[in-house]
Amino acid sequence: MGAVRAHGGACKAAALGTAAVLVAAGLSSCGGHAGPPPVSERPRALEEPATDTDGLVRVLVYHDMEGLTGQSDPTTFRFSHPDRYAVGRTYLTGDVNAVVGGLFDGGADEVHVVDGHGSGSPEPDLLLDELDPRVTLVRRDRPFDAYVDLVEPGVYDAVAVVGMHAKTGSGGFASHTFTLGIDMILNGMAVTETEIVGYSWGRVGVPVIFASGDDRLEADLAGPMPWVEFVRVKTATSASSADPRPVEEARFDLAAGARRGLEEFRRARAMRLSEPVNATLHAVPPADLSMLAAVPGVDYADQRVTFEANDFRAAYDGLVGLVTVARGGYTSVMAETARSLVGPEFGATYSDALFGRWLDFESGRWAAPEPVPDAPRTYHGFR
User: Fold this and answer.
1) Cα-based distances in Å from 295 to 45, 222, 292, 330
2) What is the mean pLDDT of the chain?
C-alpha cells in the first residue's frame, strides 16, 4: 500500500497505546533486555506451486499506484490532490487492463483485482466504467487487509502485482515499504511489498508470477524473486521524479509479460519464511521509534525494534502494530506545519488546550465524544 496508506487502510490512523502495540507485536513490556533473536541460516524456502484443485486457472491481481505507466508526478497517486489523482486513475486503469488482457491471453479463466494502494477514496481507485468487463473486483462489507486476509488454499493459482514501488532506501520513485518512513525486515531480509505479498501467499503455495514498476523495484526483486516476469515502465530519477517509457510501448510489454508469466507458471516459486520468524521494524523520517528505547523488554537499537514470531502472520501483525507507534513521529511534521501557519503562538495555544483537557477530565467535565457511525459502504482493499 502504497505511500498513501498513511491515510488509512492497514495503517490505521488511530493511535494505539504503547502497551497494546507491544502485545500486538508479541513483545513483552516487562523483564530484561534479551537481545535480538537469532536469524535462521536458511531464512526462507522456495517451493513448487500448489496443485490446482478445481480445474480453473484463477489469478489475483493487486494494484498499487506508484509504479504506473506514464507517471512521474507523486500527486497522481494521492487522493488529496483530486485533479492529479484523476490522472493517476487513468494511468492505473490502463495498466490493469493491459495486465488483465495478458493474463486471459495466457490461459486465465478468472481474474480478480484487489486494491493494494489505499488512497483514502471511498470509491475504487480504478475507473470502473473503463475497466475490462471480465474482471471481478474483490469487495467486502467490512474493512480487510488485502495482503493477509484473502489468503486461503485452493482459491487462486497465481498472483500478479501492478504499479508497485521499490522498498524504503532503494532510491526508487516514491520508494517505501507499507507506509511513509517504514522499513520491514524479515529473517534478516529487507523486503518490498511485493515480497510481503509473496510470503503471505506462499503460506498456501501460491506464487507471484508478474510485477510492474520502476527500475529500482526491478533491482529489488532480481535477487529474491528471479522467476517473476517483470516489466519496467519507468526509470526513477529521485523519490519524486521519474522518466517514463512511452505509454503504448510499456502497455504492450505489460500484456506480453503477464501472458508469459502465466504461461510459464510452473517455473515460479511459492515463498515461505523459515519459522520462527525474526522480524524488525526500522523507522526513518518522518517515522520514529525512539519512544520505545527505554521500555524494558523491548529490543530497540538505532530506530529498530526486533522480535520473534511463530509464523509470517504473527510477524506481519506485530510489524503493523509497531508501525502505529512509529507513525507517532509524523506529529513533528504536523507541529512544524502548524507553527508555519499559525505562528509562534501555536505552542502556547496547544499547551493550554492540552492542560485544559487534563483538568476537565480530572474534574469530571469531559467525556469522550460519541463515535460517528460509518455510513454503509463497500471495501475494495486498503483504505
Assistant:
1) 34, 38, 5, 21
2) 89
- Say if CB 303 and CB 322 are below 8 A apart: no
Q: Are 264 and 108 in contact (CB under 8 A)?
A: no
- In contact, 220 and 161? CB cutoff 8 Å: no
Please report whether residue 382 resides in a domain.
yes
Residues 6 or more apart whose Cβ sits within 8 Å of residue 53: 154
CB atoms within 10 A of CB 82: 10
Using the structure block, give the residue that is written with the C-alpha cell 502497551. Answer: 19
Distance CA 225, CA 164 (A): 14
Question: Which residues partner with 271 through β-bridges?
Answer: 46
Domain limits for position 58: 1-14+37-383
Residue 5 lies in a domain: yes
Please report the pLDDT score of residue 342 as a whole number.
Answer: 86
Question: Cβ(304)–Cβ(280) under 8 Å?
Answer: yes
Contact 189, 43 (CB under 8 A): yes
How far is residue 286's CA from residue 274's CA, in Å, rounded to a whole number? 31
Does the residue 343 lie in any domain? Answer: yes
Q: What is the pLDDT of residue 37?
A: 53
Read off the CATH number of the domain in which 303 is found: 3.40.50.10780
> In this model, does residue 18 exceed pLDDT 50?
no
3-state secondary structure 11-54: CCCCCCCHHHHHHHCCCCCCCCCCCCCCCCCCCEEEECCCCCCC
Question: Model confidence at 211, in pLDDT bands (50, 70, 90)?
Answer: very high
Other C-beta atoms closer than 10 Å to the C-beta of 130 total 12
Nearest to 126 by CA among 158, 162, 155: 162
Task: Answer yes or no: are the C-beta atoms of 77 and 4 closer than 8 Å.
Answer: yes
Question: Which of 250, 253, 219 is CA-nearest to residue 236?
Answer: 219
Q: What is the mean pLDDT of residues 80-96?
A: 96
| Short-list 253, 268, 267, 265, CA closest to 102 | 253
Q: Which pLDDT band, with edges at 50, 70 and 90, does 10 fall under? A: very low
